């Protein structure tokens, strides 16, 4: 029956428009890959910094060690120089910044190619639903840092990031939910192995992103 | 058989109207520009079809100004939601019947 084909097409169109109008589908796989590479790179930098291979900032004032300080104060200063927290925050911020910039760039490029606008009702909804858990998680991590519970920072960031992705997944291609689930699982396992945060970070923000990006690239982008 | 055919709503026969209703079923309210982009239709085309749906009391058109820019948003009415769901049920029923 010819009528039947029209009905099937009608239903297919309804379905596709409902999806298109609620999901931001231009998230590029390359965004995931680049974020993952920066994640690994950042983890490597942090590892080298912790091993003391290089130093970005010296803690407190960089006063001249040959000044009139007592010998004791110099030793205190040297000990403080070893505190890597500031350096690690700088590395983490740089990593996050670069990952975001490149992820936005690749997604922008894909949206342009698909003829979608990157600033739409759906992309706004996606951003809002990701932003809320991310901001809460960020503040919570700062509180953890403030209390000196360094071992919990990596689990907290992984868990809140995972929750953010799951929250956002209903507004975009649904596969991103799995990235969220893996990050939460890694974060929870990390709470057992406190002190191995860097390793779990590299797995969660690095490896999981790269795998996700490659899968998405071949599934959607290459068409 | 006759009863089923009358369930297919004439107001939704047109693809653009079907599209407008589909968007509004899953979004609380949608503005003119977003709707235009989603359905890939011209201004005039969209205006005439939304006007027809408004006349049938299936959608609500809200016109207001944001600053100096006119802003038109669409939302589905209770009647419209019911009518569209009936239409979908009828479509599905027909397809199953004619298999």
Are there runs of chain B of 5+ residues with pLDDT below 50, and where? none
Q: Mean pLDDT score of chain A, rounded?
A: 86
Strand content of chain A: under 5%
The rounded Rg of chain A comes to 22 Å
Low-confidence stretches of chain A: none
Binned strand content of chain B: 15-25%
Quaternary organization: heterodimer
Computed structural class of chain A: mainly alpha
Count of DSSP strands of chain B: 3
Strand order of the largest sheet of chain B: 1-3-2
Taking all Cα atoms into account, the compactness measure Rg of chain B is 15 Å
Q: Helicity range of the residues of chain B?
A: 55-70%
Shape of chain A: elongated
Question: Which helices and strands appear, and what pairs or packs with what?
Answer:
The complex is a heterodimer of chains A (223) and B (99).
Chain A: H1 2-22, H2 29-50, H3 71-81, H4 85-114, H5 121-146, H6 153-168, H7 176-192, H8 197-221
Helix pairs in contact in A: 2-4, 2-8, 5-6, 6-7, 6-8, 7-8
Chain B: H1 2-7, H2 15-26, E1 30-31, H3 32-39, H4 43-55, E2 59-66, E3 69-76, H5 78-97
Describe the structure.
The complex is a heterodimer of chains A (223) and B (99). Chain A has helices at 2-22, 29-50, 71-81, 85-114, 121-146, 153-168, 176-192, 197-221. Chain A has 223 residues and is mainly α. Chain A is elongated, with a radius of gyration of 22 Å. The model of chain A has no long low-confidence stretch (mean pLDDT 86). Chain B is an alpha+beta fold and 99 residues long. In chain B, 60% of the residues lie in helices and 18% in strands. Chain B contains 5 helices and 3 strands. Chain B has helices spanning 2-7, 15-26, 32-39, 43-55, 78-97; strands spanning 30-31, 59-66, 69-76. A 3-stranded antiparallel β-sheet of chain B has the order 1-3-2. In chain B, β2 (59-66) and β3 (69-76) form a beta hairpin. The radius of gyration of chain B is 15 Å and the shape is elongated. The interface between A and B is medium-sized, with 18 and 20 residues.
């Amino acid at each position: 029956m010819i009528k039947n084909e029209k009905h099937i097409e009608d239903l297919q169109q309804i379905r596709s428009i409902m999806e298109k109008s609620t999901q931001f589908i231009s998230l590029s796989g390359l965004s995931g890959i680049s974020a993952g590479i920066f994640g690994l790179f950042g983890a490597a930098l942090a590892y080298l910094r912790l091993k003391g291979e290089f130093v970005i900032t010296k803690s407190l004032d960089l006063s001249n060690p040959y000044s009139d300080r007592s010998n004791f104060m110099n030793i205190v200063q040297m000990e403080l120089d070893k505190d890597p927290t500031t350096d690690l925050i700088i590395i983490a911020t740089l990593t996050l910044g670069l990952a975001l910039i490149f992820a936005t760039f690749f997604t922008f490029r894909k949206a342009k190619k698909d003829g979608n606008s990157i600033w739409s009702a759906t992309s706004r909804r996606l951003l809002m639903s990701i932003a809320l858990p991310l901001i809460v998680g960020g503040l919570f991590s700062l509180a953890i840092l403030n209390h000196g519970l360094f071992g919990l920072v990596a689990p907290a960031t992984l868990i809140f990031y995972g929750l953010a992705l799951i929250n956002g997944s209903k507004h975009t291609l649904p596969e991103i939910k799995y990235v969220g689930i893996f990050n939460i699982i890694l974060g929870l396992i990390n709470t057992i192995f406190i002190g191995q945060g860097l390793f779990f970070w590299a797995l969660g923000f690095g490896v999981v992103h790269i795998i996700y990006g490659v899968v998405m690239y071949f599934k959607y982008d290459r068409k | 058989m006759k009863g089923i055919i009358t369930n297919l709503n004439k107001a939704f026969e047109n693809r653009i109207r079907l599209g407008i209703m589909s968007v509004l079923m899953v979004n609380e309210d949608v503005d003119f520009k977003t709707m235009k982009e989603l359905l890939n239709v011209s201004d005039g085309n969209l205006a005439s079809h939304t006007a027809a749906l408004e006349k049938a009391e299936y959608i609500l058109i809200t016109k207001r100004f944001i600053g100096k820019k006119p802003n038109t948003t669409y939302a589905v009415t209770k009647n419209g939601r019911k009518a569209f769901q009936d239409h979908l049920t009828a479509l599905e029923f027909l397809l199953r019947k004619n298999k």
